[in-house]
Prior knowledge:
The chain is an alpha/beta fold. The chain is built from nine helices and seven strands; from the N terminus they run H-E-E-H-E-H-H-E-H-H-E-H-E-H-H-E. The protein has one domain: Thiamin diphosphate (ThDP)-binding fold, Pyr/PP domains (Rossmann fold, 3-Layer(aba) Sandwich), CATH 3.40.50.
Amino acid sequence: MKTVFEKTKGLTDAITHYCPGCTHGISHRIVGEVLEEFEVLGKTVGIASVGCSVMSYDYFNVDMVQAPHGRAPSVATGVKRVLPDNIVFTYQGDGDLAAIGTGEVVHAAARGENITVIFINNGTYGMTGGQMAPTTLLSQVTQTTPKGRDKHNDGFPIRVCEMLSTLEGVVYAERTALDSPKGVMQTKRAVKKAFKSQIEKKGFSIVEILSTCPTNWGLTAVESLKWVEKEMTEYYPLGVYKDKTDKGVF
């Protein structure tokens, strides 16, 4: 019988802890597939963040380092400078990257560190119970905004791709969504381009992936996908925000 699909060698056989309907697993698979296709599994170092992704070191079949909360870009910087020929990536959620770790990712991007950031944006602090995150939408109900996020009290959600794309050190920034098969395929293309730019020593790359959190959103898996499509993409438009990958070495 012809094999039509195989699990990527980029992932271990560990059973993930993610909730039903969460798209972290799809993101993992995409990253694993891309690293396998580039044949760099044996020379890749991943940096695990704090959040729902904290146990990603059990899931990616590469060398992994656990970083303190928000510090993944700083740890990645150190690893990459010691091992410049290795592939180094961070895997971070919005509470980790866009809150406590904002300074780390901004300055790693400004320096043009030749690393790849995989940024999972589900608009909430998933691991700790669904509190408001920097990416929580206006009027979105969370554990700490029971009446919805209010711009007067809580400010506006941060658009990370748009912000980082203004920095000269960033060579590639794209936002995708895992709300459909088309979105999954586009996400893989973006992740592949981000890692390719690192392999070619171009500079800092980031892929922001709009993801689901059915448990903390209080929605079913199907409803969560529709929420990403209808609500999240309205405030977080999909697309390429910066692409200097054809400009030569940074």
